[in-house]
Write a structure and sequence with these properties.
Blueprint lengths: L2 H28 L4 H6 L7 H9 L7 H8 L6 H10 L6 H9 L2 E19 L9 H21 L7 E12 L2 E4 L2 E4 L1 E19 L4
Antiparallel strand pairs: 1-5, 2-5, 3-4
Length: 208
C-alpha cells in the first residue's frame, strides 16, 4: 500500500469521530431539533446536568439557584412570584410565574380576634339587709355578675361578635347600715370578653 493511501486512511479513521464530535457540538449549540432540551433532560445524573445546562443558558433549564428558589417559594403566594421574577427576570420559570400572576384571585377569609367591651353597670341592690357589709357586697356582686352576663351576651345578637365570658368590676361600693344590718348597691362596669369578626382578603396565585 502506498504511503499516500495510508495517510488518507488514517485521516478517515481519525476524522470521522472528529466530524461526529463537531457535528454534535454544532447541533447542541444551535439546539437543532431540540437537541439541547433532550440532552439537558436526560434521565441520568439529575439534577446536576439540568443545573449545568441552566448555568450556561442551555435547554431552557433553570440554574440551581433558580430551581431551589422556585421549589421553596411560598405556595400560592403572589408576592413570592413577584419576587421570583425580580430575582430571575430571564429565568426558566419567569413565564410560569407571570401566568400564575395573571390568574390571580382574591379569597376572603373570616378571622375572629379577641376584644373587650366595658359597659356602665349600676344596681341599686335587692332591697334586703345582710348581717355584715361583706355579705351585702357579695350579694350585690352576685346580682351584678348576672346582669353583666345578660348585657354582654347582647353583643352576640349580631353576626359581628361572639360572646366568650362576662364579669363585673366595681368602681365604688355604696353601702349603708340599716337597723338589721347592711345593704349595698353595685356601681361599676360590665366587662365583656368577646371575639370580633373581620374579613381578610388575600391574593392567591395557584391552584384553587
Amino acid at each position: 500500500m502506498s504511503e499516500s493511501k495510508k495517510k488518507s486512511g488514517g485521516l478517515i479513521l481519525f476524522g470521522a469521530p472528529l466530524l461526529v464530535a463537531i457535528g454534535t457540538a454544532i447541533s447542541f449549540g444551535a439546539n437543532v431539533m431540540s437537541f439541547q432540551n433532550m440532552v439537558c433532560s436526560i434521565d441520568i445524573a439529575q439534577p446536576g446536568i439540568s443545573d449545568a445546562c441552566g448555568a450556561m443558558g442551555f435547554g431552557g433549564k433553570p440554574s440551581k439557584t433558580e430551581r431551589l428558589a422556585w421549589a421553596n417559594r411560598e405556595t400560592a403566594s403572589c408576592e413570592a412570584l413577584r419576587r421570583h421574577i425580580d430575582l430571575f427576570p430571564e429565568g426558566a420559570f419567569r413565564d410560569d410565574a407571570a401566568d400564575m400572576l395573571a390568574a390571580m384571585r382574591t379569597e376572603a377569609t373570616e378571622v375572629w380576634e379577641p376584644t373587650e367591651k366595658r359597659l356602665v353597670l349600676f344596681l341599686a341592690g335587692d332591697g334586703k339587709s345582710y348581717p355584715g357589709e361583706a355579705d351585702a357586697r357579695a350579694a350585690a356582686m352576685s346580682q351584678a355578675e348576672a346582669k353583666a352576663a345578660q348585657m354582654c351576651k347582647s353583643f352576640a345578637a349580631t353576626a359581628s361578635y361572639r360572646f366568650t365570658a362576662a364579669s363585673a368590676a366595681a368602681t365604688d361600693w355604696p353601702c349603708e347600715a340599716t337597723g338589721s344590718g347592711y345593704a349595698c348597691s353595685f356601681d361599676g362596669e360590665a366587662v365583656c370578653d368577646l371575639s370580633v369578626r373581620h374579613v381578610q382578603e388575600t391574593e392567591v396565585c395557584g391552584p384553587a
